[in-house]
Amino acid sequence: MNKIIVEEENIKLLDSDDLITLTLSDKLDIFDVSKVKIDVIGSTSIEITYKNTNELKLDISCFLYPNVEASIYEINESNNLKIKYTYNLLENSKLIINKFYDVFNVKELDVINLNGKNASIIYNNKVIAKEAQKYNLIIYHNCPSSISRISNKGITILDGSIDFNVTSIVENNIKECILNQYNKIINLNNKKCSISPNLLIEEQDVIADHSALITSFDENELFYLKSRGIDEATATNLLIHGFLNEKSDEKITNIINKYWR
Amino acid sequence: MHKLIIKNLKASIENKVILNDFNIEINSGEIHAIMGPNGTGKSTLSKIIMGDPNYKILSGEIYFDDKLINDLSIEKRAQMGLFLGMQMPPEIEGVTNADFLRTALHTKEGKAFKLMNFINELDKTCEELSINKNMIHRSVNQGFSGGERKKNEILQLKLLKPNMIILDEIDSGLDVDSLKIVGENVIDYFKNSDAGILLITHYQRLLDYIKPDYIHIMMDGKIIKSGDATLVSILEEKGYDFIKNELSDFNDMKEVSTNE
Questions:
Q1: Which ipTM value was assigned to this complex?
Q2: Where along chain A do its domains lie?
Q3: pLDDT the model gives residue A60
Q4: What CATH code is carried by the domain that includes residue B151?
Q5: Which phi and psi angles does A250 have, rounded to 5°?
């Protein structure tokens, strides 16, 4: 698996299978932003790990060639993060993104361009928010039969708050697209959170659905777990792991266990 | 020997009284069935016994094994051996049945918990209930059919081995074959344990498999008539109104007699 390590402004590619190329550009002087370009030329997997104590400003663009199927697995344990991702997907390409953020302060913009027929993206973003976090996603269905399945899940703790602003766009004559948005925040500290699920669709021939929910833990779920003898703390732990780590990923388990044991 | 006693229970939700002067005593080896029209407080009763904090006990007592449990937490009641098989068990996103059951059993058994024993018993019980083993690795009740949800409740029952079982409309949503499997598994557990059962149901069909010793008719938050299994036939034939009218006539006669 290709491994990209982002550590204190150093960006390295390890264990490359030569199916991706990584290009680093000089920082833009004014904004102090590091630019990274990832070209994915063949079907492969990429793991991105962030470990930064200083504020990180990044502009990452990821380009998928036609017929390429790729997955990106991302664990981010930085302090403060300002990041822009641009994903460009060409014909018949498929990208699966699984991201997990344990970050204090985040401002993120994700622009997803589905630029080829049958291009599809599955985007799973999970966050633990300890300070203010804002995520803006814009998905452009620029070609017919393109598919986007977007899932954003977050839990607020300490001073954390989350804004998910997700906009899916289909213009007229871009037919047979499938758009799905799922956004949920478990608000454990009663800070103000928001979800804006926007579906801007001009075309009739589209399948679109979305759900948006800001809530604390469901009383019925807690009652059910407790009715089997499970105490409150363990029940909460079970629900958090279920919400953020349904595939029991070991790295994510370790992060969650820092907060809920 | 286990015993659940409810004495003069009055309970409400959002200032609306749901149970009023409710009394019952259930011992190990006994099966009690509560029947009654919709909205009479049957499911409320099951949740109050289990300690649902949404309901408020205004007066009366609930004893389990001689311990007053009015203020006991839900999990402590479960750890004492109370089990509620729910009418509409919730879906829990991302928590697999296996994790849920393992956590529940680990909590119950502590250091005595053995993972291999758990896996073996889980396999065996799935077969007994004709449950597809893939269901174990799916999120709790998520995407389950009505029948799968009810079988999942009985799966938990058989693994957790409670000694006082409340089954709230466990027959709803079950086809004929699933009803038979659920009924036979409940009765099999009952015969091989020291448990008592409180069944809440609308229909006789479940009682063909789980034959009760006592039938109670519940209306307006209390038991208005108790009897043996023959009471079900009367109900099936004449309906709840007949029982209500019969009771009303009896009360009128009692009143006349007292006045005279």
A1: 0.92
A2: 2-216, 218-261
A3: 94
A4: 3.40.50.300
A5: -65, -40
Average pLDDT over residues A23-50: 86
Among A227, A234, A238, whose Cβ lies nearest the Cβ of B50? A227
Burial of A176 (0-12, 13-18, 19+ CB in 10 A): middle
Contact status of B17 with chain A (Cβ, < 8 Å): no
- Are A88 and A114 a contacting pair, CB within 8 Å? no
pLDDT of residue A52: 74
Q: Which domain holds residue B116?
A: 3-259
**Of B217, B212, B200, which Cα lies nearest the Cα of B42?**
B200
Query: What's the rounded Cα separation, in Å, for the pair B11 and B70?
Result: 11
Band of residue B255 on the pLDDT scale cut at 50, 70, 90 = low
- In this complex, the residue of A226, A227, A238 whose CB is nearest that of residue B95 is A238
User: Around Cβ A53, how many Cβ atoms within 10 Å?
Assistant: 11
Q: Which of A123-132, A203-212, B94-103, B232-241 has the lowest mean pLDDT?
A: B232-241
* Residue A61 DSSP SS3: strand
Q: What are phi and psi of B226, to 5 degrees?
A: -125, 155
Give the max Cα distance, chain B.
73
CB contact under 8 A, A221 and B92: yes
Q: What share of chain A is helix, strand, coil (3-state, %, to 5)?
A: 10, 60, 30
Of A237-246, B55-64, B127-136, B243-252, the range with the highest mean pLDDT is B55-64
Are B40 and B216 contacting, i.e. CB atoms less than 8 angstroms apart? Answer: no
Number of domains observed in the structure of chain B? 1
Give me the amino acid identity at B109. E
CA distance, residue B22 to nearest chain A CA (Å): 22
Between vectors from CA A242 to CA A238 and to CA A243, what angle results, nearest 5°? Answer: 120
pLDDT at position B141 is 94
Q: How far is A247 from chain B (nearest CA, A)?
A: 8
